[in-house]
Design brief:
The protein is of the alpha/beta class and about 575 residues long. The chain contains 23 helices and 22 strands. A hairpin with a 5-residue loop joins β9 and β10. The chain is elongated and about 100 Å long. The structure holds ligand C2E and calcium ion (CA) (2 copies).
Length: about 575
Amino acid sequence: MKKIILFVDDEQSILSAIKRLFRKSPYNILTAGNAKDALDVIRTVPISVLVSDYTMPGETGAELLAMAKSIRPEMSRIILSGNNDQEALLQSINLGSADRFLTKPWDDSELISEVDNAMAAWEEKRYTWPDKKLLNQTSFIQMVDELISEPETTNRAVIYFGVRDFENVQQLVGIEELRNFLYEISPTLNSVESSVTLAILDDNNFCGIIKLENEAASLKQKISDLIEPFLEASALDNQKISISLDVGYCVASPETASAIDLISNALTAYQHAKSSESGNYVDYQSWMSEKKNYDRIIESNLQHALKDIEFVLHYQPKINISNNTMHGAEALIRWNSKTLGMVSPFDFIHLAERSEAINDIGHWVMNEAIRQWVEWFGQSEVQPIVSVNVSPRQLKDFSFVKRVESVLQEHSIDPSRLELEITESLMVEDIKTTLKILNDIKALGVALSIDDFGTGYSSLSYLNQLPVDTLKIDRSFIFPMMESEEKRRLVKNLIRLGHDLGIDIVAEGVEDEQQLEVLKEYGCDVIQGYFYSPPVPSGDYARLIEKFPPQVADTQDFQQVGMLKSA
Ligand code: C2E
Ligand code: CA
Ligand code: CA
């Protein structure tokens, strides 16, 4: 990393003398004639050591050092003032801005050795913790910048990693404990080679730069050297929490424009590792950035989609396994964008979730699904259930329950005909708040279903606390069911567990008769999947109502429907 010293003095002859003195030093020397110019340099160049005169036109040297300290706290700062300048000494002490106080005229060898010491102190301070080889963010970016501006950059790589499922782990053990744990297992100054440096970016994320001596063959080895300690110490404090990491990395190429580019590519690879099934090493590929750009295009188009009414709903029937009648349907959003064509919910829901947009989209879905339902079944004595997906982010909106209530009133639908599908991951995140919201929803008379059951964080322990009516066994359990007895047993147990708790079971993603027969044998209640029908546009749904006529409700439900109609 380049070591740069800035000398500030209003006397040109002094600056010239200093430049001569340091001409053969390993440092780059910059100079400025006053505090204002010096600050401009400090803001743009990563200065390691600042040496300033005290008495200058404008700000004093002590004032300059104080301002410089707030810009680059890790920089070493020295005052070089005229002899007997008591005021300079006092002010520097009061401002706490100078590390050293030297007097003119200086002794050449003393000045050189003071500057060497200041440089060594700066090296230490670049690390967030002096005993650990952990740079802070600014120093890290500087270091990467430096390394990629050298020739032959193809044997440099930036690695980005963090704790998998950080939010949940942090909830479980507390942020303090997790932070201490990560600090404990971070490399010390001696534990890794000098070619490897790590930085800590925030509570969870680490970044590292690796400089290889020769070709990239040993890159994987170096990467695992770097994260090995984190993986080895994976059980946190004897608790049953185990830590795994997601790792992304990017090898520099001659086209790598800047440190920020390289780091953000490693970050992109890390994000891919994060969303993959198993915690993994992901090597950055250029299509990942293309995907990111596509995401950006989707995000900007999304803003108009609702206003321009580009969304429609498709409906997929849920069939009662015992008698082939229609239990209900799941409303699934489709986006027919004027500029992008058909966009899958997989490609835009998670983007809408990043912003407030999901609240309005979700509200539109609920309103449209209920409107449609009343149009189809409002006059009939049989009332199947319409299910709507609710994103975790919507539930965090404090006005959510109110909005549900007003949609129900607007269409005068029996609240029990609406079911909200909520993914499991949300429920563990903040169990207390979630329980309150779910109970408020239940109080409206709306049904609740756990979506994607089995894919989230271990969940059986709190299932009995949740006011849910239905549990949807995720497609990923149904799909491999015919592969082995073991996989079938898992499904069988999930069904039994649900029934023990008085919860109905829906199996989703049922595609063939074999799966259907097994599920029937296990006592599964409701089936959703291509075997019966894929999601269809509203215009095609009448055919399905005919094919699977909804079940005539039992006496109790019947009365409710009657009451609703006469009201
Ligand atoms: P999901 O809630 O798990 O919905 C089921 C998905 O599985 C649907 O994909 C459906 O088309 C598909 N599917 C149904 N049966 C089968 C089958 O037998 N085999 C296979 N391979 N797939 C089947 P879709 O419609 O593309 O929706 C994807 C996801 O997008 C949904 O997953 C849901 O998480 C989200 N989503 C859809 N509509 C909405 C919405 O209105 N609001 C929110 N927040 N999310 C939505
Ligand atoms: Ca769903
Ligand atoms: Ca699902």
